[in-house]
């Protein structure tokens, strides 16, 4: 009997522990699958093609057990903790569209806490993508077949066996002239590399590196960026770096997620005057010398909004949030046409939704061109104060100061803005006091601490008293369930459907309250029977 526990998630990718009998396997992993599951030797109809019609699925599908077989048109009886085998997945490795399409029934038709096994698929060149799309278990069939075909396997692709003599690898297989051993070790090594990137929350950065030499993987990445399966698995925030080094970085789902909340949840603290400012290499922006110059000139007389690639717009109140406070991008001084087109949409959506009486454009180069096109699309007239293409020059700063001459000073409320983005609720923060050195700050209502800032993600962490200002993001545990430490998925009775991994949540139950961080999404909390759902920070018994 097999039992699987997911431990660390990064989008669809996971690390976990699979127990089969007395054997424990840290996943993702490649294993001797027939030794692990000997029943596969005499199971008929385990290779029903994914493209087989419903009539064939009804007639020939055999689910089996340990592992349970899957077909997109059949009811899969897999239960939490099982291993689900997806026969025929190899047939879609070169077809990005079908690969992406089949993920939807796979994730919808099986519990989220099963281990997914892709038979005869894994090579060093595609293991990262397979793991990034939710597969946990592999065999050595594909690399052994490559060895028979005299192919030398690397993460860059499959090459002639003569590559073994070129000194490109120093593994035991290469040292002893054993091609089959090299190919197996290359697969094991790549899986180990992928694990470390999952644990650091940067599997996407690795995928953007790995896919560059494989057109079908670039195509798959583009399909996945438009897939609801990928979007649903996104965490609310990360604490890792966001490396925007390729064209595919522009379409990362977390950018669309961030900007959607900027447009539809966030509400500016004022709507009389807005100043569009350029970004800075240092994050958060306000710690950079350039932005300190801007802020000394503006002096709270306008709402500050940063125009940047690849995000689009970042209101000053949200500069600490992921990915605004975490991204790094190569600076060339040139924004290409496709990049600009995407950014124009984000900036135009912001200006159309949040109407200001005046919008001052203190930008140069590509950012200025994007803002100009976006303003025209949103029907907004810009006032330009940077006429020498140097936003921090004395002349530009003087022009900005003159443009704000008659404007009233008003306090920027980053707590109100962050609460709106994070919880989708407008909270009256009048009388609240912020203490501490930015960004390590705590928020008080009179003498009672109600929030603290998680500087690694930018989110606000409510205390027990802070939750009285928030109505959503509740997790209800079942009657009779007595938590011991973290909240496990089997004890969840109900939860807010908006919850994503990484969100701050409030746990309620009979005689029990807790505040903590969601370790899985709302859907996974309700459908899983295993694993930690909420990592508890503080509890209170009634």
From TrEMBL:
Gene3D superfamilies, per the entry: PUA domain, Queuine tRNA-ribosyltransferase-like, Uracil-DNA glycosylase-like
Biological process, per Gene Ontology: tRNA modification
tRNA processing keyword on record: yes
PUA domain location: 473-541
Keywords of the record: tRNA processing
Superkingdom of origin organism: Archaea
PROSITE patterns documented for this protein: PUA
SUPFAM superfamilies to which the protein is assigned, alphabetical: PUA domain-like, tRNA-guanine transglycosylase, Uracil-DNA glycosylase-like
MF terms (GO), sorted A to Z: RNA binding
Entry annotated with the keyword tRNA processing: yes
Pathway: tRNA modification; archaeosine-tRNA biosynthesis
Any matching Pfam family: DUF5591
Family to which this protein belongs: Belongs to the archaeosine synthase type 1 family.
Name under which the protein is recorded: PUA domain-containing protein
Biological classification of the source: Archaea, Methanobacteriati, Methanobacteriota, Stenosarchaea group, Methanomicrobia
């Amino acid at each position: 009997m097999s039992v699987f526990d997911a431990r660390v998630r990064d989008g669809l990718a996971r690390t976990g522990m699979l127990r089969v009998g007395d054997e424990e396997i840290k996943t993702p992993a490649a294993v001797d699958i027939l030794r692990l599951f000997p029943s596969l030797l005499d199971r008929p109809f385990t290779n029903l093609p994914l493209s087989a019609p419903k009539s064939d699925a009804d007639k020939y599908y055999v689910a089996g057990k340990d592992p349970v077989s899957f077909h997109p048109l059949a009811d899969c009886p897999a239960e939490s903790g099982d291993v689900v085998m997806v026969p025929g997945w190899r047939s879609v490795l070169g077809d990005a569209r079908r690969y992406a399409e089949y993920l939807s029934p796979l994730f919808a038709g099986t519990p989220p806490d099963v281990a997914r096994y892709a038979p005869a698929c894994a090579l060093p060149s595609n293991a990262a993508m397979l793991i990034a799309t939710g597969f946990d278990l592999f065999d050595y069939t594909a690399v052994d077949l490559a060895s028979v075909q005299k192919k030398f396997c690397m993460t860059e692709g499959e090459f002639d066996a003569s590559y073994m003599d070129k000194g490109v690898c120093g593994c035991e297989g290469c040292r002893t002239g054993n091609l089959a051993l090299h190919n197996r070790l290359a697969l094991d090594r790549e899986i180990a590399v992928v694990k470390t990137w999952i644990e650091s929350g940067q599997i996407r950065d690795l995928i953007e590196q790995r896919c560059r030499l494989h057109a079908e993987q670039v195509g798959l990445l583009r399909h996945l960026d438009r897939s609801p399966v990928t979007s649903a698995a996104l965490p609310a925030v990360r604490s890792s770096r966001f490396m925007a080094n390729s064209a595919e970085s522009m379409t990362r789902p977390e950018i669309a997620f961030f900007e959607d909340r900027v447009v539809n949840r966030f509400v500016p603290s004022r709507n009389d005057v807005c100043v569009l400012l350029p970004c800075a290499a240092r994050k958060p922006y306000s710690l950079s010398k350039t932005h300190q110059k801007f802020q000394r000139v503006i002096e709270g007389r306008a709402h500050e909004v940063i125009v940047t690639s690849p995000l689009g717009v970042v209101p000053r109140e949200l500069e600490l949030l992921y990915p605004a406070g975490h991204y790094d991008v190569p600076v060339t001084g040139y924004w290409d046409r496709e990049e600009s087109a995407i950014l124009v949409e984000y900036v135009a959506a912001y200006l159309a939704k949040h109407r200001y009486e005046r919008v001052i454009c203190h930008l140069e180069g590509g950012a200025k061109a994007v803002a100009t096109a976006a303003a025209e699309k949103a029907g907004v007239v810009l006032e330009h104060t940077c006429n020498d293409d140097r936003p921090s020059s004395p002349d530009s700063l003087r022009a900005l100061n003159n443009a704000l001459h008659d404007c009233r000073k008003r306090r920027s409320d980053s707590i109100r803005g962050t609460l709106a983005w994070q919880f989708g609720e407008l909270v009256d923060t009048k009388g609240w006091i912020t203490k501490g050195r930015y960004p390590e700050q705590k928020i008080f209502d009179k003498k009672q601490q109600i929030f603290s800032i998680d500087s690694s993600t930018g989110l606000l962490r409510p205390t027990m008293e802070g939750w009285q200002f928030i109505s959503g993001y509740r997790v209800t545990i079942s009657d009779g369930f007595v938590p011991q430490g973290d909240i496990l998925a089997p004890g969840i009775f109900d939860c807010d459907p908006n919850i994503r991994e990484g969100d701050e949540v409030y746990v309620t139950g009979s005689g029990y309250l807790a505040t903590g961080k969601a370790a899985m999404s709302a859907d996974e909390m309700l459908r899983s029977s295993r694993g930690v759902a909420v990592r508890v920070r503080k509890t209170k018994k009634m």
